[in-house]
């Protein structure tokens, strides 16, 4: 995915396309798995999509699975409704659409038990009631970028409205360039069509239930759902729309369950920004684990991770949300590996304190744009930490040194450069959380508002309505090569949908929309068709993965017993040093105190439910309070304090700033 702002200082790393060496061991190991587990059987009518295992619409009095605690049911209680390809789905507003799924998938709607997990996205994908085997079951996923975290190139119409407004300190240049400045501009807009409520209207309309149905119908089985921390709360001075996005997170869980989709939930933004990119909420500097407010912002972030984990670890959600990314794309070159590793260790212990060892979601961490190789042997003995990498041909961590190649070149890049097999051995479970069909940086605002691509022929590539068949075929070959290379555990395309420009009335960043490519022929209509692409092009994988993880990497024997050498190296927290604090001791930097009531994450209400609902908190033993500013103290700007305003100033007899939040691993009850 593109990276606004850092895009101005893009670093291009050499690809180093090496000669391909074919291992006979690869054929012996991979082909049996390929043909028996992943590749669609040619003789099966259900697997190939010509038939559904259910009639077009059925009702059942005994759904195959449920969660929650049953209550006495009325004989008049509505029966679950289910259907496959061609069934008609009626929405809450009374409208309807026809469900199209030629892959044998079926939806389940159970008003009395809204936690019914019997739906199946496709006949070849495990139902939500069945375990997911990361060694055998391929993740075929898509991101819902731009829905709950706004990005200019994904939803340009929202930003185009505010490109020439009255400048102010909060809106420099009179341009909305990120969600912070967009929120300021909307709040300043007192016209009948203005106001911050425009963002909720976007939530309501940009992604709907029908999108979830279409994702399952496209042969995809997972969603990666970026959420902002302001879905939970905002603090004074932060202009974001607070607590509203969470309502749509709950809808996403509901719709995913209905259509048999699994969710990779990820915290896309953190206080102070983890990378300074526009998709972190505010374009600018990194103030998470960096700078004078780095520790304080990390405290808030840890709280938000905790609240989300408490919610998704409830039994009602554990099958729907098996994966949680705790910080999206932290900029490692600024933060530092030592500092980030210490934070990750604290987060791991806090999370497993809540869930127990071998339980709860996988913990996904991003590679920090440093590639996967450098993460070898990360926290050995930890419980189900997975590595999330975001391969791209430009921007931070770019895979090529320039973009001036013929279209036919890109399929080889997908085959050679996008494989995660080495990391499966070195780290453990490694997924590609973002990739796209982009072969250049063309597209309106892909590099950020006001930033133009230097790629050649952008006029041609932006005009997707007039792409020739060879152009579509070339882009499709690139997409298929990536999907084939990332076969296991799998991938998530960035992103499902790109909105139209209000100026041109059409999508202006076509490389980034799965739906647009699916509708227009440069995304494969059956993602299983990608398997074998690289071998057919003469680029078989030069390092086969044997399909085996170490037991502790998937929550088995040894999980939760982190190697003593790692503990000795990384247990001290806060880190012994922090960048951009002029040598100050991190334990003496501004920090918050845990004395406030924990914000409540709302739970859904179901009118006809006959099962008890969770209260939003999985671990009753977790009674820790929330961090908050010390009363009577004035803190530096959490988003980048100016020189000379980097200390906490307190007044009054009760205003005592904590002098240290140093913790050890013993602070967490890891069992």
TrEMBL record:
Q: Where in the cell is it found?
A: Cell membrane
Q: Which InterPro entries match?
A: GH, Glyco_hydro_5, Glycosyl_hydrolase_5
- Asked if the keyword Transit peptide belongs to this entry, the reply reads no
EC number(s) of the enzyme? 3.2.1.58
- The transmembrane segments are 12-35
GO cellular component, alphabetical, reads: cell surface; extracellular region; plasma membrane
Q: Segment Disordered: which positions?
A: 45-87
Top enzyme category: hydrolase
| Broad class of where this protein is predominantly found | membrane
Q: What Pfam families does its record include?
A: Cellulase
Q: Where is the Glycoside hydrolase family domain?
A: 198-390
GO annotation terms (biological process)? cell wall organization; glucan catabolic process
- GO molecular-function annotation terms? glucan exo-1,3-beta-glucosidase activity
Q: Which reaction does it catalyse?
A: Successive hydrolysis of beta-D-glucose units from the non-reducing ends of (1->3)-beta-D-glucans, releasing alpha-glucose
- Which keywords has UniProt assigned to this entry? Cell membrane, Cell wall biogenesis/degradation, Glycoprotein, Glycosidase, Hydrolase, Membrane, Signal-anchor, Transmembrane, Transmembrane helix
List all Low complexity biased stretches.
Answer: 45-82
Note the topology in the membrane.
Single-pass type II membrane protein
Hydrolase found in the keyword field: yes
- Physiological role: Glucosidase involved in the degradation of cellulosic biomass. Active on lichenan.
Family, per the entry? Belongs to the glycosyl hydrolase 5 (cellulase A) family.
Its recorded name reads glucan 1,3-beta-glucosidase
Q: Write down the species.
A: Lentinus brumalis
């Amino acid at each position: 995915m593109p990276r606004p702002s850092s895009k101005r200082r893009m670093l291009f790393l050499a690809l180093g396309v090496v000669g391909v060496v074919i291992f006979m061991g690869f054929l012996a190991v991979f082909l049996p798995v390929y043909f028996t587990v992943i590749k669609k059987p040619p003789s099966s009518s259900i697997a190939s999509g010509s038939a559904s295992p259910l009639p077009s619409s059925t009702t059942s009095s005994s759904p195959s699975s449920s969660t929650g605690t049953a209550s006495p049911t009325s004989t008049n209680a509505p029966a679950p409704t289910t259907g496959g390809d061609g069934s008609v789905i009626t929405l809450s507003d009374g409208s309807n659409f026809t469900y199209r799924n030629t892959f044998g998938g079926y939806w389940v709607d159970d008003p009395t038990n809204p936690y019914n997990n019997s739906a199946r996205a496709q006949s070849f994908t495990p139902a939500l009631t069945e375990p997911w085997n990361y060694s055998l079951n391929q993740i075929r996923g898509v991101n819902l970028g731009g829905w709950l975290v706004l990005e200019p190139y994904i939803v340009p119409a929202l930003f185009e409205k505010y490109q020439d407004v009255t400048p102010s300190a909060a809106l420099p240049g009179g341009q909305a360039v990120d969600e912070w400045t967009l929120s300021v501009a909307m709040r300043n807009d007192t016209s009948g069509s203005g106001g911050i409520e425009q963002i909720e209207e976007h939530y309501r309309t940009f992604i709907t239930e029908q999108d979830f149905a279409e994702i399952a119908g496209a042969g995809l089985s997972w969603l990666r759902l970026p959420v902002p921390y302001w879905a939970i709360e905002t603090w004074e001075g932060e202009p974001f729309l607070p607590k509203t996005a969470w309502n749509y997170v709950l809808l996403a869980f509901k719709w995913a369950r209905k259509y048999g989709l699994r969710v990779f939930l990820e915290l896309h933004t953190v206080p102070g920004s983890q990378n300074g990119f526009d998709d972190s909420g505010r374009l600018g500097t990194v103030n998470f684990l960096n700078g004078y407010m780095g520790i304080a912002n990390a405290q808030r972030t840890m709280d938000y991770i905790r609240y989300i984990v408490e919610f998704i670890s409830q039994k009602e959600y554990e099958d729907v949300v098996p994966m949680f990314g705790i910080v999206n794309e932290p900029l490692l070159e600024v933060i530092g590996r030592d500092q980030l590793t210490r934070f990750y260790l604290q987060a791991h212990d806090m999370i497993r304190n809540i869930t127990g060892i071998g339980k709860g979601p996988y913990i996904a961490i991003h590679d920090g744009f440093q590639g996967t190789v450098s993460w070898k042997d990360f926290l050995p003995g930890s419980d189900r930490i997975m590595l999330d990498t975001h391969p791209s041909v430009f921007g931070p961590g770019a895979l090529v040194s320039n973009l001036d190649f013929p279209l036919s070149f890109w399929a080889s890049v997908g085959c050679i450069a996008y494989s995660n097999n080495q990391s499966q051995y070195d780290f453990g479970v490694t997924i590609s959380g973002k990739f796209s069909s982009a072969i250049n940086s063309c597209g309106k605002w892909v590099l950020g508002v006001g930033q133009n691509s230097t790629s050649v022929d952008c006029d041609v590539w932006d005009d997707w309505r007039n792409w020739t068949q060879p152009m579509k075929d070339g882009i499709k070959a690139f997409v298929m090569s990536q999907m084939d290379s990332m076969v296991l555990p799998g991938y998530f395309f960035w992103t499902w949908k790109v909105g139209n420009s209000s100026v041109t009335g059409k999508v202006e960043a076509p490389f980034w929309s799965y739906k647009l490519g699916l509708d227009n022929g440069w995304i494969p209509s059956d993602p299983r068709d990608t398997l074998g692409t690289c071998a057919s092009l003469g680029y078989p994988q030069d390092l086969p993965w044997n399909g085996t993880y170490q037991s502790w990497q998937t929550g088995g024997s040894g999980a939760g017993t982190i190697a003593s050498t790692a503990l000795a190296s990384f247990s001290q927290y806060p880190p012994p040093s922090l960048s951009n604090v002029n040598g100050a001791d991190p334990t003496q930097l501004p920090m918050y105190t845990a004395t406030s009531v924990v914000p409540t994450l709302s739970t859904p209400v179901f009118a006809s439910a006959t099962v008890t609902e969770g209260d939003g908190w999985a671990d009753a033993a977790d009674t820790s309070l929330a961090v908050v500013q010390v009363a009577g103290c004035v803190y530096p700007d959490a988003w980048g304090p100016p020189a000379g305003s980097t200390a906490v100033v307190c007044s009054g007899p009760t205003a005592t700033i904590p002098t240290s939040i140093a913790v050890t691993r013993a602070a967490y009850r890891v069992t």
